[in-house]
Design goal:
Low-confidence stretches: none
CATH topology of the largest domain: Rossmann fold
Strand order of the largest sheet: 5-2-1-6-7-8
Number of strands: 13
Radius of gyration: 25 Å
Distance between the termini: 19 Å
CATH class of the largest domain: Alpha Beta
Mean pLDDT: 96
Strand content: 15-25%
CATH architecture of the largest domain: 3-Layer(aba) Sandwich
Order of helices and strands: EHEEEHEHEHEHHEHHEEHHHHEHHEEH
Shape: elongated
CATH superfamily of the largest domain: Crotonobetainyl-coa:carnitine coa-transferase, domain 1
Number of helices: 15
Length: 395
């Protein structure tokens, strides 16, 4: 392939599946890397069947490609190979000799029996960066356990602070543990590539979904470490800021995110409650946090008398941070999404329309912009092409 983008000279051998690894390799592919997605012959990545919805053909019938699979697999070429066979494992070793980076998310030790563990491949390619993604990491008492996103959200604590007050714990609406692990994996890979540029050394990156989840507990996690008080869910509220949550207007929901006392005074005036800013219980943010149970019902009653758009307009004019709660239909219909290129149309022969829409990459780089070269591949679509490209000098 012709190199492109800032990673145009980097070869990625992707032995991962589901979401954490594929989301990482999609991002690397968007940045120009040549990503080869290794899949099981005949079945491929598990997410291919995680529908509906699926891509539909010209007759309106479902294909084998789900929306879930399409979300994390563009800018890759698919190589279908059975790594459990001697021939398949030998092919992976040959490709690993040419690779800059290998990403895998097998269970700890799962690739050792095929001779494809880090030590095996580092012995034949010392410059290889080998990234292992697991639920609990390569070490520790739980290293043997599988890590599914919802289980990790529960184990890592984020569910305990998400959901209604005094209600059932909620997971985040997308597989956020997987996605954030993919982001951290990319960060580690880029750092490892920089280290290799300076020293010529590859290395093993061990990244776990649980570790990642613990890392992005951020203020809630450090609040606990600071005072030892176990935080509880405050619904759509904020543990340290009031008012900073979702409110119901007469015809929809609105987000109010007051960040300082001047903004609160302005918001109180908009609601016809200007006196609240002089009330000793509410004058400062710590006061409002301490008296959350008193002030929130007062605000709810006043906000319910406004229409959503009228209150949004008043907040905009008054310098009070506020926003709508959009559905996904609302989001992808906004002029902001269009202006920022966050919905991308790609050619896709399997689709009856010949095209699919996918979510764009948020990186806007002035010198090396991301590009969308390849739609998500069919399983094994590029076998001959990949072998010819990567192993051309093998005879």
């Amino acid at each position: 392939m012709t190199p492109s983008g800032p990673l145009g000279d980097i070869k990625i051998l992707d032995l991962s599946r589901i979401l954490a690894g594929p989301s990482a390799t999609q991002l690397l592919g968007d940045l120009g890397a040549d990503v080869v997605k290794v899949e099981r012959p005949g079945k491929g990545d598990d997410t291919r069947s995680w529908g509906p919805p699926y891509v539909t053909d010209g007759d309106g019938a479902n294909t084998t490609e789900s929306g879930y699979y399409l979300s994390a697999n563009r800018n890759k070429r698919s190589l279908a190979v059975d790594i459990t066979t001697t021939e398949g494992a030998d092919l992976i070793r040959a490709l690993a000799m040419k690779a800059d980076v290998l990403i895998e998310n097998f269970k700890v030790g799962g690739l050792k029996k095929y001779g494809l563990a880090y030590d095996d491949l580092a012995a034949i390619n010392p410059k290889l960066i080998y990234c292992s993604i697991t639920g609990f990491g390569q070490t520790g008492p739980n290293a043997h356990r599988a890590g599914y996103d919802i289980m990790v959200q529960g184990y890592g604590g984020i569910m305990s602070i998400t959901g209604p007050v005094d209600g059932e714990p909620y997971k985040v609406g997308v597989a956020i543990a997987d996605v954030m692990t993919g982001m951290y994996a990319v960060t580690g890979i880029l750092a490892a590539l920089r280290h290799r540029d300076k020293t010529g050394e590859g290395q093993h990156i061990d990244i776990a979904l649980v570790d990642t989840t613990a890392s992005w507990l951020v203020n809630q996690g450090v609040n606990y470490l600071l005072n030892g008080e176990v935080p509880k869910s405050v619904g759509n509220g904020h543990p340290n800021i009031v008012p900073y949550q979702v409110f119901a207007t007469s015809d929809g929901y609105i987000i109010i995110a007051v960040g300082n006392d001047n903004q609160f005074a302005a918001f109180a005036e908009i609601l016809g409650l200007g006196h609240l800013a002089q009330d000793a219980r509410f004058a400062t943010n710590p006061d409002r946090v301490a008296h959350r149970d008193v002030i929130i019902p007062m605000l709810e009653d006043a906000i319910a008398r406004f229409s959503r758009d009228d209150l949004l307009a008043a907040c905009e004019a008054g310098g009070v941070p506020a926003g709508p709660v959009n559905t996904l239909g609302d989001v992808f219909a906004t002029d902001q999404v269009a202006a920022r290129g966050m919905k991308v149309t790609m050619d896709y022969p399997l689709a009856g329309s010949g095209q699919i829409d996918v979510i764009g990459n948020p990186l806007k780089m002035s010198k090396t912009p991301v590009d969308y070269r390849l739609p998500p591949p069919r399983c094994g679509e590029h076998n001959d092409e990949v072998i010819a490209d990567w192993l051309a000098d093998e005879g």
